[in-house]
Amino acid sequence: MARVGARLYARRLVVGAEGNLSARLADDRFLTTPSGRCKGDLVEADLVVVDLEGRPARPQSPLPSSEWRLHREIYRLCPGAGAICHGHPPHATACAVAGRALDARLLTETAMLLGPVPLAVPSVPGTDEVADSVRPLLPAARAILLANHGAVAWGRDLEEALHRLESVERLAEVTILAAVIGGGRPLDAEFLRRAGAVDPDQAPDGDSR
User: Fold this and answer.
1) Which CATH number fits domain 2-202: 3.40.225.10, 1.10.287.130, 3.10.580.10, 3.40.350.10?
2) Cα–Cα–Cα angle for 59, 79, 53, rounded to 5 degrees
3) pLDDT tens for residues 62-95?
């Protein structure tokens, strides 16, 4: 997790103390990054095991990320989720600020591997509102834009969650660049069928593609 945090920071998907990571350990607990720490400087001792009420397993542990409720909600509704990355990638966050969801059909790779990236309603960071905002979008989505906030993605492990967050950022960047020269043209349904893209409604665990 510390290595993935360093990669998030090096690629400017987070700056300062932004963002948070987690990995499911069991149905009733997960490992998460601490509150208020730069993700580029994490060491093993910084990481926190919490239960489903956000309580650290060890009394001497640092405070867990304030977004532990968001992570809990994704694990609760997406059985295939084993790890989560939440960051503030600049292009994806720009789309979230502009109130624009992302259409994965603009790129073959995102259509096949990521699927739609919806926009959650505005919510106050670090509160139950964030979990409430993503609930209607689960389990169909693998990544979500958080209004005026950032983006969150998940996968079977931290590597896949990071790759999906990177894909969200690339899709957002291409979306913005395409808009400058007239707008993107989504791939049609027949092409996507031949390419092997799957209807997200057929992927209830968020990971069957």
Assistant:
1) 3.40.225.10
2) 25
3) 999 999 999 999 999 999 999 999 999 999 999 9
